[in-house]
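hey so i finally got around to running the thing on that chain from the lab meeting. sorry it took forever, my laptop kept dying and i had to restart like 3 times. anyway pasting the input first so we r on the same page abt which one it is
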Amino acid sequence: MTLLFIPSIMGGDWNHFKTLLIVLVVLYSCVFVSALIDLYFGVKRARRLKIARTSFGYRRTITKLTSYFGLLIMLSIADVAASIILNLPYFTVIGAIGIIIVETKSVIENLRQNEKGIEEVQKTLLKLFENKEEIQQLITFLNTQKQEEL
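ok and heres what got predicted. didnt touch it at all, straight out
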């Protein structure tokens, strides 16, 4: 029979406590690494698009990490309270998986946004080529207006 968290601590079974701590460290580390990966791809996209990287974006990452870890700590506390019934930190596992999914979606959006930019440029160029006669007429008109002003 496997002892639950609180009864195992009260009974002095520290192996179960160490196992639980290892699981929590792995979960918290996975969330931290996923946020760092999102930061990396966000900075990479900003460099590629020549967007200035300001302290606001970096502060947003720190705020995000603070929110994530605050949520994980609350879920860990709920797991400790629920450990009378449950054997593993199910709430923390579900929360960490949810956060990692959100960060994965963010990375995918960053990657797709780059591809979307290229597609938009291609579409714009095709429209320009389709309407090249009208553009030439517009340029001619503007040139004649400019010469009349002189």
